[in-house]
Specification:
The chain has 266 residues and is α+β, with helices and mostly antiparallel strands. It is built from 4 helices and 18 strands.
């Protein structure tokens, strides 16, 4: 039976794994429930493009946004955040929550129109993570090279205490009227207090929904935000032959004073 529902969001009492390729570590959460159950969609409107904004083109020139929400031909954005009024924690970033909200993560599916707009992520905002052959070639929405982005849609998990930067690119010769919709789960989460269960999840012998974050290079901001929020920066992913070593390590993490004091276990 699937651990996700018709929206692709994790069902109550199922597990979510957030994987960090740069460190080969993952956070494992049990989704207790969804804050926004039955209200999973935000029709946000247009991309955050305001008339008068200056964008860079793929040819290195400057393009001006003439009409709000309309993306000039051959242009791309830097890392964008989505505002949502003054009543949220950070008015400029609707998915940001502080480290004290360590019982919350946002599972977000972004859908952009037209569907051929390039979509990418900076984690943290301002840091391009796309690499080819280690550090030899940098990719992403803002490069002519054809890698490091998706078209029209993207899935991610927003973790506390860190800003993500959304990037969009129009590599056509036409100005595009844009639109964006979010399908999301504001999950109330706990970390399972069972080292053996965590190993079974990370060895993929126990069902969980996996989301890999596009993080290929180590960044201290990410590590610090995880430690500040949950007291550690993830569970190392081990092969099956190292089960005993992994369980010993996971047990030490779960019993550590920093983790226990934050009250995040169940």
């Amino acid at each position: 039976m699937s651990v996700v529902d018709k929206y692709g969001l994790v069902k109550d009492n199922e597990l979510l794994t957030v994987y960090y390729p740069s460190t080969n570590k993952a956070m494992v959460f049990r989704v207790i429930t969804r804050q926004n159950k039955e209200f999973e969609t935000i029709d946000y409107g247009t991309l955050p493009l305001t008339a008068g904004d200056s964008l860079v083109t793929y040819e290195g020139a400057v393009a001006t946004v003439l009409t709000t929400g309309v993306m000039p031909a051959r242009s791309y954005t830097t890392g964008k955040e989505f505002a949502f009024g003054n009543d949220i924690w950070d008015p400029s970033d609707m998915f940001f929550v502080p480290y004290t909200w360590n019982d919350r993560v946002f599972h977000v599916k972004t859908y952009v129109k037209p569907g051929f707009i390039r979509v990418g992520l900076q984690i943290p905002v301002g840091v391009n993570q796309s690499r080819f052959q280690k550090e030899r070639v940098i990719g992403g929405v803002n490069y002519q090279t054809g890698f490091g982005y998706k078209f029209g849609e993207m899935e991610t998990v927003h973790m506390p205490e860190i800003h993500y930067g959304y990037m969009f690119g129009n590599d056509t010769n036409l100005s595009l009227v844009t639109g964006v919709k979010f399908v999301y789960g504001e999950y109330i989460v706990k970390i399972p207090n069972s080292a053996s269960l965590i190993f079974d999840v990370l060895s993929k012998s126990y069902p969980a929904h996996w989301v890999g974050l596009p993080i290929t290079t180590a960044d201290s901001t990410i590590t610090q935000s995880l430690k500040k929020t949950w007291g550690f920066d993830g569970f190392s992913v081990y092969p099956n032959l190292k089960r005993d070593q992994a369980i010993q390590e996971y047990s030490a993490i779960l019993k550590s004073q920093d983790v226990v004091s934050k009250g995040v276990l169940m």
